[in-house]
Amino acid sequence: MTGPTFYTTAELARAAGVTRRTVMHYAELGLLTPDQVTASGRSLYGPYALRLLRDLLDLRALGMTLEEARDMVTLRRATHDVSGAYRHDWTRADVPLDDERLQALQGRLRAIQSAYERQAENLARFDRWLTKRFTGTPET
């Protein structure tokens, strides 16, 4: 049986479709932490780091600030184990964010969700139009 796969900084960046510098920047900010550091100082990241990195990229694409993204990563780390599985046994004491930060985060998430819901119908309409346009299906 083989152990977990580890990514170097460059491999993690390649797997997520970002630059090595982006991974290093997120690591410097404490948003990503290596699972291992070799004797020569090389950072190695496990599969969960790829999930966190992709989450960070998605959150940033949705318009969240780095601080909001940091809070989301903190919340995920507190409620999930290192493999990324949800921990059903987590308690409020496991979450190192105060209630004010959590309420602000919830408000931001609700605003993003509301904007997404408003745009979902438009996106579906545009997709139908583009599908018709490029498949030659006549307008109905």
UniProtKB/TrEMBL annotation:
Q: Does the keyword DNA-binding apply?
A: yes
Where the record annotates domain HTH merR-type, the positions are 6-75
Q: Molecular function terms in GO for this entry?
A: DNA binding; DNA-binding transcription factor activity
**Does the keyword field hold Ribosomal protein?**
no
SMART domains the record matches: HTH_MERR
Q: Which PANTHER family match?
A: HTH MERR-TYPE DOMAIN-CONTAINING PROTEIN (PTHR30204:SF93), REDOX-CYCLING DRUG-SENSING TRANSCRIPTIONAL ACTIVATOR SOXR (PTHR30204)
Report the protein name in the record: MerR family transcriptional regulator
Tell me which species this is from. Deinococcus arcticus
Organism lineage string: Bacteria, Thermotogati, Deinococcota, Deinococci, Deinococcales
